[in-house]
Design a protein that fits this description.
Layout: E1 2-7, H1 28-41, E2 47-50, H2 54-66, E3 71-74, H3 96-104, H4 117-134, E4 138-143, H5 145-157, E5 178-182
Parallel strand pairs: 1-4, 2-3, 2-4
Antiparallel strand pairs: 1-5
Length: about 180
Amino acid sequence: MRLWLCRHAPVLVEPGVCYGASDVPFDETATQVAAKKIATWLPKACVVWASPSSRAAVFARQLVQFRPDLNLAIDPRLAEADFGTWELKKWHDIPKTDLDTWVASFALYTPGGGESVYQLMLRVTAALDHLQDLQVPEALWVTHAGVIRAAQFMAIHGVRKLPEARNWPDTPIPFGEPLPLDL
């Protein structure tokens, strides 16, 4: 099966700010443009799931407005990682010792007391397992960079392996552009 992973459209947050679980403002025009573009080529048999955050859910709802033949489900397992007290702080304002601790124990550390990468991976694994159980030929997730990286890591390294910071995918995840992942 093919899973399309699509990051929401750009957010209206100052560069260098840590955001994950926070429901931040997003570019509504870019959201509509991206949804319309994806609607033109998305296969008819495709099912769509979206994160509950407004930046992803609005994107997915607009996509379905352009393509009423698509079914949409909001899935909390596709939410971005929660950075706890780090949320909405500038990355350079987070103590270096905290960032170093996260890198040293990348999978298990809970940044800002929020959610560990391991916890994120458990959510994404459950969503992937559910998707494979449904045996749909193609699906689209409208989600976030962290969820996309977790899915990519699992596809490359195995679903149950814990990541280290050095082998976590670090390529930029473009806004509003679907990336294919064959499962």
